[in-house]
């Protein structure tokens, strides 16, 4: 009988790969895992596998062939060097791993995904339901429904001090799509994309998809993970095309003060090719007295800035998949051109819901204020709790719903029955194994000394998680120190 080779995943978490014969696929492809027998085998090391970034001048394609005995034909199954240069999202992988464990009956507390645990406000959901009932289920224009784009313009004017017209807005299937389309629209092969670290996990990969080079600028926990303007100035070159700023930040929760942004703006103004993309998706999740400043509102920066925002976080609309970008018409038209070939317009039902969301009032009104109040209570609890743990360093977040803590003092310790904690990935595996808490390693965000905790979970769940993490770290602290 003819036999073909298939590349399949052999665990429910999608992280362990091997080549199997066709007769083995049905038995192995969906093999479940148990916490006791398989969790110790879970390794984020597999996520490190990637090809080096391939420059435009040096594409080296590795030909991989699958052979079928049916006809003796070799089939070229190689992938694009552009795709090979991209690393899978660790946040998605770990969230999927935690979900699989929960489905298998393991009481894992999932603090990896950046998704509010609140329901979408009723006014918004009703607008979506009414859109379906009223037959608003056809394509909208590619850039988004006019009433939504006009509502976005009104919001940006009243809340951010930014003046745009509807043709300077493109609505996309989530803010992530808006960001990647902007990167592809303005970057050429060999350009440099300046990215402060810690960064949102997808930014460097988006640059690589555009065949641009991500230039990572480190920040420090002692400076609240804010980019030092002097460091930025020292790293800019004639190839610098795009600076990406995320404020409030994923993963740190840091918020850029207006004074720091003004210093950055002065530097940007000296470089004619340099544009700035600001990811403001967490804008409304911010803790007073901290305030948000849109970079495009600073003197001379409107023409240089692409502003991305959306509805997923503040309005608890992650599954509705809706974001937008605003900027000078020349750049926005280019983003719309890409979208016309990628996805066309966003979901019509979601767009009607978004109009209702923007109608809730400034900063989302009372509905969002209730969520922010809960996030602040959770943040305060976590900051207090982890401040009491010897060896943990903290920068108090001023926005978003993440705590990015430095646990590097525990590296080099050996845990009985687990092994040596070498880095943030092994720390997260250890806490998943011993504490049954799913977190994200800082290496995913460009800072291996830290781990990210999402507090988009109930206070009771966070209280339990903290107790588990404390016990696991105390055990680690009492363990032996490995000799390197």
Automatic annotation (TrEMBL):
SUPFAM superfamilies membership: PLP-dependent transferases
Entry's transmembrane regions: none
GO BP of this protein: aromatic amino acid family biosynthetic process, prephenate pathway
Pathway recorded for this protein: Amino-acid biosynthesis; L-phenylalanine biosynthesis; L-arogenate from prephenate (L-Glu route): step 1/1; Amino-acid biosynthesis; L-phenylalanine biosynthesis; L-arogenate from prephenate (L-Asp route): step 1/1
InterPro entries to which the protein is assigned, alphabetical: Aminotransferase_I/II_large, AspAT/PAT-like, NHTrfase_class1_PyrdxlP-BS, PyrdxlP-dep_Trfase, PyrdxlP-dep_Trfase_major, PyrdxlP-dep_Trfase_small
Claim: Acetylation is one of the keywords in the record: no
Name listed for the protein in its UniProt record: Bifunctional aspartate aminotransferase and glutamate/aspartate-prephenate aminotransferase
Organism: Acacia crassicarpa
